[in-house]
């Protein structure tokens, strides 16, 4: 992977200097996982920062045999940075929703890079603040109608990870249970709303290729209250 492609793929690295990008590529380790494979167990947080080159993963909270999806991440995102910085234990793991390719940078290397490149340091702080804002938005929307909350989830996934196509932005066909848990509504509500959005022509679900097309993105944004 060339440094220009690396920088364009990951917003975190958009302001990093060329030397930083070259060094990152040299020390990064490549990983490939099939769907449903654990890519990061709860006892491994803090060892490295992971970059999603392709595919989709979910971060889930575990408690015994029970688990709840907390976030869906796609191409161009990263995870593990908080555990690297605060070194606190995590009761979460990361599972591949689709075949996924990752790059990992060890804790020691990543911290070295942050000290060497203040632009990267500042950019990471910006993205971490953005994540806090997204969490605050979810808290504010807890009392919103289920359809509004689900539209907000779809819009967020489309904005962050959606790929342009002739049918609109396309995202992975996320399992209904995971979509419901991330949105904090019931599985039954999620299924009904997705069917209704499909009937309206706002989305199109391609079960064969595991794709959801966000056909009428403008209407989804309006429904989410992002006008």
UniProtKB/TrEMBL annotation:
Q: Tell me the InterPro entries matching this sequence.
A: cNMP-bd_dom (IPR000595), cNMP-bd_dom_sf (IPR018490), Env_Response_Regulators (IPR050397), HTH_CRP (IPR012318), RmlC-like_jellyroll (IPR014710), WH-like_DNA-bd_sf (IPR036388), WH_DNA-bd_sf (IPR036390)
- Which is one Pfam family of this protein? cNMP_binding
Gene3D superfamilies per UniProt: Jelly Rolls (2.60.120.10), Winged helix-like DNA-binding domain superfamily/Winged helix DNA-binding domain (1.10.10.10)
Instruction: Give start and end of each HTH crp-type domain.
Output: 144-218
- Specify the signal sequence span: none
Keywords for this protein? DNA-binding, Transcription, Transcription regulation
Record has Hydrolase as a keyword: no
Q: Where is the Cyclic nucleotide-binding domain?
A: 12-131
**Coiled-coil segments, which residues?**
none
Its transmembrane ranges are none
Q: State what protein this is by name.
A: Crp/Fnr family transcriptional regulator
Organism of origin is Calothrix parietina FACHB-288
């Amino acid at each position: 992977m060339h440094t220009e492609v690396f920088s364009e793929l990951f917003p975190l690295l958009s302001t990093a200097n060329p030397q930083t990008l070259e060094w990152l590529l040299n020390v990064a380790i490549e990983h490939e996982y099939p769907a449903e494979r654990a890519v990061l167990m709860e006892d491994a947080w803090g060892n490295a920062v992971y970059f999603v080159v392709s595919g989709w993963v979910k971060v889930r909270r575990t408690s015994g045999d029970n688990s709840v999806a907390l976030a869906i991440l796609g191409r161009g995102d990263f995870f593990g940075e908080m555990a690297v910085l605060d070194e606190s234990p995590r009761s979460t793991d990361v599972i591949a929703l689709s075949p996924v390719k990752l790059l990992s940078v060890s804790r020691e290397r990543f911290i070295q890079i942050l000290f060497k490149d203040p632009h990267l340091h500042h950019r990471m702080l910006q993205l971490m603040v953005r994540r806090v804002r997204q969490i605050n938005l979810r808290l504010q929307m807890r009392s919103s109608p289920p359809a509004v909350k689900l539209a907000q989830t779809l819009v967020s996934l489309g904005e962050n990870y959606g790929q342009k196509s002739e049918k609109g932005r396309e995202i992975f066909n996320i399992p209904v249970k995971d979509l419901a848990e991330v949105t904090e509504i019931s599985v039954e509500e999620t299924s009904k709303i997705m069917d209704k959005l499909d009937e309206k022509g706002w989305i199109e679900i391609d079960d064969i290729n595991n794709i959801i097309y966000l056909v009428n993105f403008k209407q989804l944004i309006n429904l989410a209250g992002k006008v």
